[in-house]
Amino acid sequence: MDHDVKDLALAGHGRVRIEWAGQHMPVLQAIRERFAKEKPLQGWVIAACLHVTSETANLMLTLQAGGADASLCASNPLSTQDDVAAALVEAGIPTYAIKGEDNDTYYKHIHAVLDRRPAITMDDGADLVSLLHKQRVDQLADIKAGTEETTTGVIRLRQMAADKVLRYPIVAVNDTPTKHLFDNRYGTGQSSLDGITRATNILWAGKTVVVGGYGYGGRGLAMRARGLGAQVVVTEVDAVKALEAAMEGYAVLPMVEAARIGDVFITVTGDKDILRREHFEVMKDGAIMANTGHFDVEINKGDLRALTRETREMREHVVEYTLEDGRKVYLLADGRLVNLAAAEGHPAAVMDMSFADQALTTEWLTKQDNLSPNVYDVPDEIDREVAKLKLSTMGIRIDELTPTQQAYLSSWQEGT
Ligand code: ADE
Q1: The pLDDT of residue 2
Q2: Per-residue pLDDT, 37
Q3: Is the pLDDT at 125 greater than 50, yes or no?
Q4: Beta bridge partners of 322
Q5: Which of 1, 7, 123, 233 is deepest in the core (most CB within 10 A)?
Q6: Pocket test for ligand 1, best of 62, 78, 79 (most atoms within 8 A of CB)
Q7: How many CB atoms lie within 10 A of CB 153?
Q8: Contact 68, 75 (CB under 8 A)
Q9: Given this model, what pLDDT does residue 3 score?
Q10: Does 185-341 match 2-179+346-393 at the fold level?
């Protein structure tokens, strides 16, 4: 077998969990049924680097149903669900991922999907695209196009395009409304609090929760933490977002002030050093820190270690850092994505839309011949189709414009 997941005893467990997730992904299911009939991806080799979860498995099975030769590696060393990986292998989808894999194995697995000579890449965080451009340049000519799932990846790709080094077209799936308005907000909000709750079993009511970053992920976190009875403090560098947070009723503070009062800190910015030495120095005894941004750079672990006298594992995913002055602070999931490391990531019902966008965008890309290397938006028709399908699977009907309303909107002369 050309994969690294050998414990096929896990596969049965994974198969049922994939089926359960699939039951909450009706839009993707409808696409899968059409793909199985029409085979729009017949002959396409697709390399995906995504979180290996039961939701991703449903996407991979959809690509396979469409005729693709699809393989998968992990987009994060801690997010893999091993039973799902085993079930995918059993289903004939080469899957290279082991939960907790070290850095070398993580990159070996990205190389493994690239060894299959893909024509389409599907990335979450742009590690696969970055490795291709840095170490496998000879292969770039084989690649027709790609997709990118997350904000951090899109930022990296836009920088590559600005530096004129991006060598093939990539669609920023993250940026389409049916993705980020739902997945980033409701998915991150719920699953991150789920991860922190599973790891710690803390009571949220009455806590002061500091949310670092008020993008869609931060909005979801703040909203759900407030819903659980927490006092929410938002930190931001963007004036418009800070204003929005303030008018939403949250306290807005510089992190160095928030650091003194927070009980729980959650970073979700996409940048590094959101929590660093100057913040650890003033935190309360017992403060808990978690990150839900893509990379484990948001909480500066080097700074934390430098201030630390001793560490102790309190529970799975909870490490106590006793600082030189005796205060104890807690880091969850080693500063990696807490929602995927300590819980199961975003719920299937929201990944339904993100992965429907991925599947339909991939189908669309196979038909494009004139895209130059750049970062593209998901076509509007795809976004609208996903929204309509989702509404209909939720049993929600909406109004249509009357002809008179339509005429009013398309005329600049009618004012009153
Ligand atoms: N990103 C966040 N949650 C996810 C999930 N459940 N599956 C795949 N990718 C994710």
Answers
A1: 42
A2: 98
A3: yes
A4: 310, 328
A5: 123
A6: 79
A7: 28
A8: no
A9: 47
A10: yes
Residue 4 in this model has a pLDDT that exceeds 80: no
Per-domain residue ranges of the chain: 2-179+346-393, 185-341
Burial 295-332 (b: 16+ CB within 10 A, else e): bbbbbbeebbeebbeeeeeeeebbbbbebeeebbbbbb
Q: How far is CA 341 from CA 13, 296, 316, in A?
A: 19, 12, 10
pLDDT of residue 263: 98
Q: Quote the pLDDT of residue 194.
A: 98
Its CATH class, for the domain covering 185-341, is alpha beta
CATH 3.30.450.40 assigned to domain 2-179+346-393? The reply is no
* Ligand 1 center–CA 234 separation, angstroms: 24
Q: Is the CB of 58 under 6 A from ligand 1?
A: no
In this structure, the chain runs to a length of: 416
Going by C-alpha positions, the residue among 269, 193, 257 that lies closest to residue 228 is 193
- Centre of ligand 1 from the C-alpha of residue 52, in Å: 8
Which tokens sit at 255? 């992190």
345 lines ligand 1 (CB under 6 A): yes
